[in-house]
Please model this.
Amino acid sequence: MSLPAPAPTSPYHAEEGHVGTAIATPTVLATRDFSLWYGSHQALFDITFDVPEHQVTAVIGPSGCGKSTWLRSLNRMNDLLGIVRTEGSISYRGTDIYERHVDAVEVRRRIGMVFQKPNPFPKSIRDNLAFPLRINGIRVGVEQRIETALRRAALWDEVKDRLARSALELSGGQQQRLCIARALVTEPEVLLMDEPCSALDPGSTARIEDLIQELRQRYTVVIVTHNMQQAARVSQHTAFFYVGRLEEFGPTREIFTKPTNKRTEDYITGRFG
Model:
């Protein structure tokens, strides 16, 4: 069974007793009482909140608190480990992506992902983008899709005359933008970014941050980051995770200026982390 076509849905209003908060825009991804185990180790505990459409949601928290585990749960990347058990639900536009009839490959096409370190394939720039199209059975309009993805990743003008050259010849920042283009070439609705700037220099980081603001006009973006300033700069909503639990979620400005949770305040002000 395929996932529903992108369409607006009603925003989620936080249920009593949950840390989530009401949001005024349609919801794309809804996490409800979601828990996850790696074998016997529980990594996530009853996570409940929503990812709003066409906004950037930042996920912050100390190392090992479950940020990346939750992010990878949004497109079932954790399935590939083979030792994962989950409870609760994560829904994409009303469909639970963990239902047996839902194709994980289709989930990953709709919900693309960019990883911490640039990981271009040891192929040409063009082949890096053609590969995901091929494995998804897309054979029509390939060249146009490649150009469009590179333009949306703000890379086309830099590489248009060397598409046949190795992607490994690109700089680190260019490689990360290529990986963003590769995630966009199958035309997802959601883009997940796991510490996308941690391996980049300040100039490349600034370009990626500018790009994120452009991308949210077309896509819903979720970014995991350890950089408090980056979260404050690029996001409209922020979730704070601690020891596998969601401590607080809300508009970024409120989270950073008047958090309601003492632990959130302590983390943001550098008392621990």
Remarks:
- Residues 27-119+189-268 form a domain with the Rossmann fold fold (CATH 3.40.50.300).
- The CA atoms of residues 9 and 121 lie 37 Å apart.
- The beta strands are 27-38, 41-52, 56-60, 84-92, 95-96, 111-114, 190-194, 220-224, 237-242, 245-251.
